[in-house]
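User: Second chain of the day. Same drill as before.
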Amino acid sequence: MSADAAIETHLCAHLEGVSKLFGSFAALRQVSVDLEPGRCYVLIGENGAGKSTLLRILAGLLRPSFGKVTLFNNLEPHDARDRIGYMSHAPMLYDELTAQENLRYFAKLYPGRDCLTPAEALRQVGLDPDLTRPFGQYSQGMRQRTSLARVLLPAPELLLLDEPFSNMDVESVSQMVALLAKFRQGNRTIVITTHQREHAAPIADWVLALKAGRVASFEQGSPTL
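Assistant: Same format as last time:
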């Protein structure tokens, strides 16, 4: 086995020359990056920089127009979905149901899979699974943690979180960051998009800045958690 091949076997994701076109608009331009297991990568950039597009390509929800994407050494993202947890900017949960009722519904999407129970997933994010208040009455911090619990149900190896700190107060952000630090220690790879780099700084092993679809910088972070 070559040295390059030996290195690649330890990668969670490998992107090589990835571009994504929507008509004549290039959302991503020649993006190349490697993601290692057990690390947290923070994607920053202005609106339209390509952050969410890159996340959706990693999640297997979009295919690149050009370039190569492989996960877990040799899988295309579409074929690795059962090992990926994707939390979109929208909560994707039902307002009229409780958190546990929501998670029971989503757990049915993984028949025969060795998943966390809804109660276990909620406890992992610091929520009481017996709370009877409907999801629509939750604070923004509770809504984001419930969304994270939904993502954690199948125990994914790669967590993709699109703006997880959106509209959260300082205390809720701190709680979310502490949770993500704990999950990263379980050798999960975490990729976060955010407009607020300072929120993710305590867990950022690497910070990838996108500008007009291109990699503007890829810098090592200074995580404290």
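The domain at 3-220 is CATH 3.40.50.300 (Rossmann fold).

User: Great, on to the next one.
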